[in-house]
Each structure stands twice: as C-alpha cells, then as structure tokens.
Amino acid sequence: xxxxxxxxxxxxxxxxxxxxxxxxxxxxxxxxxxxxxxxxxxxxxxxxxxxxxxxxxxxxxxxxxxxxxxxxxxxxxxxxxxxxxxxxxxxxxxxxxxxxxxxxxxxxxxxxxxxxxxxxxxxxxxxxxxxxxxxxxxxxx
Length: 141
Fold this sequence. Notes:
By secondary structure, the chain is an alpha+beta fold. The chain has 3 helices and 10 strands. It has one domain (18-138). Residues 1-17 have low confidence and may be disordered.
C-alpha cells in the first residue's frame, strides 16, 4: 500500500510533463502521424520523435444567426521532432482575429508558427500538398 501511495505522485508528475501540442482555435489539425484528428480539437498528446501534421487555417464569420461564412486555407503539412517532456503551441502567424478580407488573403497563403513551452520558435518542415507532391516526384526523375 505504501508503494502505491508513494508511486502516485511520481505518476502524476510524469503526466504533467508529457509531450503535448496546444492548437490555436483558428488552426484545424486534420491528421497527426497518419491518424485522423477529431474536428476542432484544441490539444494533442505527442510521443517524443517525428511528428507529421496535416493542418489548415479555418475561421468562421457569423453575420447573423442564419448567415455565416467559413474561410479555409488549403491543407499544409508540418513535420517536426518532438522532444521528451516538452510542450508545443501551433498557431497561425498574425494570430489575432482577422476581419473577413484579411482572413481570405491569409487563407490564400497561410503561415503557421510552432513554438516550445519557452516561446522559442521550433524549426519545422512546411509544405503545401502541391509542394510536397512536387518534391516527392522530383526524386523519381
């Protein structure tokens, strides 16, 4: 019994430092390492090692209870390596809430920023689906 009581704080301490990705409300993660992600999930648990995210920018503009517009970017792919006991944050550059015109312009060429828990920007690979396909096909010429 003493062993269980002693081990519980260690278990909870290790959970508090687990790798996690916090997702901004205007960023939609479609898949993580090949697995679908439920719509509008605000965080993901990560394992240390390579991470591949399929994401897009999404912003809903409500004009009235019956009239709205959803602005979406094309799918972007982000690849990075998660480090043990590190948390991350993913957000759209210029992440303040855009007006509809700015949101449409941003959706045409979105830029995403990934930071660690000390707010340092994390270097990551970043491609649109078209860029990734071009890169893959260029290796087969």
